[in-house]
Write a structure and sequence with these properties.
Layout lengths: L9 H16 L23 E5 L3 E7 L9 E5 L2 E8 L18 E8 L10 E5 L2 E7 L26
Antiparallel strand pairs: 1-2, 2-7, 3-4, 4-5, 6-7
Length: 163
């Protein structure tokens, strides 16, 4: 009686195990976005952010569809940005008629640590079509500067004084 040998492929076993672990943890733990190096997410990830850095400011965008802008509270305390509000639930069908229910309702709160280069007191907020847009200007000393090269190759500080 002959027995067949099967080559063991550890990569295939690892891929199968990884797939199983991904399914176990899928959706149970929120992904933690980081705002720049050393940033810190301080709250549940139930409000998605886009953070964009420009030369003179940081722009934060958050999708908050179906929420009235006057029901959103935005504050900065100790370099921590906090956005709070509530997704209102309007009962459209009785519970037993739902086949699938994925839309979440209730309060939300999201916090994000800001870098110390932000001038929070000059922040501006706009809300349009369910998108919140915050503009947080950088302090003047943190803004990018360009340095010009003098044509003679001699810096003003290096020129001999004529006393």
């Amino acid at each position: 009686m002959a027995t067949a040998l099967t080559r063991w492929d550890p990569a295939a076993d690892f891929a199968a195990m990884r797939s199983l672990m991904d399914r176990v943890f899928e959706g149970n733990f929120p992904r933690v976005p980081v705002f720049r190096n050393g940033g810190e997410d301080l709250g549940p990830a139930n409000l998605a952010f886009d953070v964009i850095e420009t030369g003179d400011s940081f722009v934060i965008k958050a999708a908050i569809p179906g929420v009235d802008p006057k029901d959103v509270d935005i504050s900065v305390e100790d370099d921590v940005l906090t956005i709070k509000g509530e997704f209102e639930h309007k009962e459209e069908a009785s519970e037993e008629n739902y086949l699938r229910r994925e839309i979440r309702y209730g309060t939300f709160q999201r916090q994000l640590r800001l870098p110390p280069t932000v001038e929070a007191e000059k922040a501006e907020a706009a809300f349009e079509h369910g998108m919140l847009r915050l503009s947080l200007p950088k302090k003047p000393e943190a803004r990018a500067r360009s340095i010009k090269i003098t044509p003679q190759g001699v810096l003003e500080a290096e020129k001999p004084s004529t006393n």
